[in-house]
Amino acid sequence: MGQAAFDRLLSWLDPDRERAGEKYEQIRARLIKIFQSRGCQTSEELADDTINRVTRKVANIADGYQGDPALYFYGVAQKVFLEYVTRKPPPPPPPRLDQEEDLNEEYECLEQCLERLSPRSRELILLYYQRDKQAKIDSRKELAARLGIASNALKIRALRVRNRLRDCVTQCLNKRGSE
Amino acid sequence: MGTEETGEEYRLIRRYLLGELREGERVDIERRLMTDEECFDSLLLAEADLADEYTRGELSDSDRQRFEDYFLLAPERRRDLRFAKALTKYASAASSAPSPVRPSATADLTRPLFWWQSLASFGRPRRLAMTLALAAVFGLLVVTGVWLLSENRRLSSRIEQLQSQQLEPDPRVEELRQQLANERARSGALGQQLERERIEHEETARELAILKQQGSTDGGRSGRSFVSVVLTAGMMRGGGELATVTVTPGVQRVRLQLILERDDYAVYRVDLRNDQGIEVWSNQKLTADRTNTVTTLVASVPARLLARGDYIVTVSGVTPAGNQETAGRYGLRVVAR
């Protein structure tokens, strides 16, 4: 995929280069989630394949296309998925999960990553995930009241911290794996 | 995000993630995922919730089955589940020992949320001052109690003496009886106060022990040349975790504060073995540090001997005849940075 074609793709997404970059990342993230949700084993590759195909076609479609470009990507992703399932048999079910699996490396990375969070975020995430069942519901309500925000806003706030933490732990584990 | 957790879209997305939607419903959801920010946020939230609920055993049997058979097909999600398990266990362990402070409605997250964080913010000099003040109060109550007991005995003796001297009732005897009754009442009240102070003193000692342990995790950041960790007998802590000490660059020594369950020996031996059973350090002439509430052994181990890994600390009491008897075993995890 050449630079000119890629520039054309970004222009199609948004005339502003920065916003186009954001839109590109959003579309890629959504495609990955959709492939994951369909049980694909190589979701990132399939998302990139989808984007490459659209990029190759963009010169022909951009001018006449009506609507949100994200839906065009989705249409191409459907075809990519069909090809994927045609050439690859469905994977076997995952092995039964061992409840006592060794999570030592995850703990160590988690501890490191928690230290990198701000104290506020660290406290929020630990409080948010510390209880079970009814106690969990009550404690989250209490936390939301204490912060003066709706419980849904608390969920989103906690989710963002969780995702940052998860990405950090993933990087930490990858780094360890490559050492 | 405007979608409530109990909303229709959230429920639909959970079903989508568990592979329960028909083809048309699935395409509708996916088209919205591509174009609707809130819908995509709902998906991220539902993914995290499902992993969390699975980890805690909160999913129904059928959802758990779908989660294992469908949701976890993607390798990224299997990795995310491991993260969810680690986070859940870590957060639960953080809350299992002490109970969180009941926050007021006006509090915010800039304020410490756990009791130990409030204490930690005191700083060492204030903690020391608090300990000394409590010890002084405790000591004063003990002295007062002893004095009252002695006074009781003196008055009782005086009454008996007077009774033996004259059989007729004497107003002075009645006065002394009344005085004795009053002193007994005061003594009883002071005894109750003494007991309350003793309990508070013990709680403070436990809190300080935990604070020291918490302090051990930031040894490198605070620039100290040593880190300290409090170990209680048994291999695991209450939350099922090994006690962990973080050894950062610059740390010279690791102080192991071993809380003894019993104090039956004048001299103790402490040895530290790695998970291969190899002895990495020992000291045969340690004596216990005794307070009213807790007896500890402090072993100062050169940090350079401690690689990352798990260790077993064995404490043996040395008998007068020179024999060694096992007095306790402690688990320790060393995390090197």
Features:
heterodimer, A: about 180 residues, mainly alpha, 8 helices, about 75% helix, globular, B: about 325 residues, alpha+beta, 4-stranded mixed beta sheet, elongated
Give the structure's gist in a few sentences:
The complex is a heterodimer of chains A (179) and B (337). Chain A has 179 residues and is mostly helical. Chain A is 76% helix and 0% strand.
Any overview of this molecule?
The complex is a heterodimer of chains A (179) and B (337). Chain A has helices at residues 3-13, 17-37, 43-61, 69-87, 104-116, 119-128, 133-147, 151-178. With 179 residues, chain A is mainly α. Chain B has eight helices and nine strands. Chain B has helices at residues 8-17, 23-35, 37-55, 61-69, 75-96, 115-120, 124-165, 171-216; strands at 226-232, 243-247, 253-259, 267-274, 279-286, 289-290, 295-302, 309-318, 324-336. In chain B, α1 crosses α3 (37-55), α3 packs across α5 (75-96) and α7 packs antiparallel against α8. The longest helix of chain B is centred in the middle third of the chain and has 46 residues, at 171-216. Residues 97-128 and 210-223 of chain B have low confidence and may be disordered. At the A-B interface, α2, α4, α5, α6 and α7 of A face α2, α3 and α5 of B.
Low-confidence residue ranges of chain A: none
* Intertermini distance of chain B: 39 Å
Beta-sheet strand percentage of chain A?
A: under 5%
| Main β-sheet, spatial strand arrangement of chain B | 2-9-8-4-5
What's the helix-strand series of chain B?
HHHHHHHHEEEEEEEEE
Average pLDDT of chain B, to the nearest integer? 73
Identify the most extensive interface between protein chains.
A-B, 61 and 60 residues
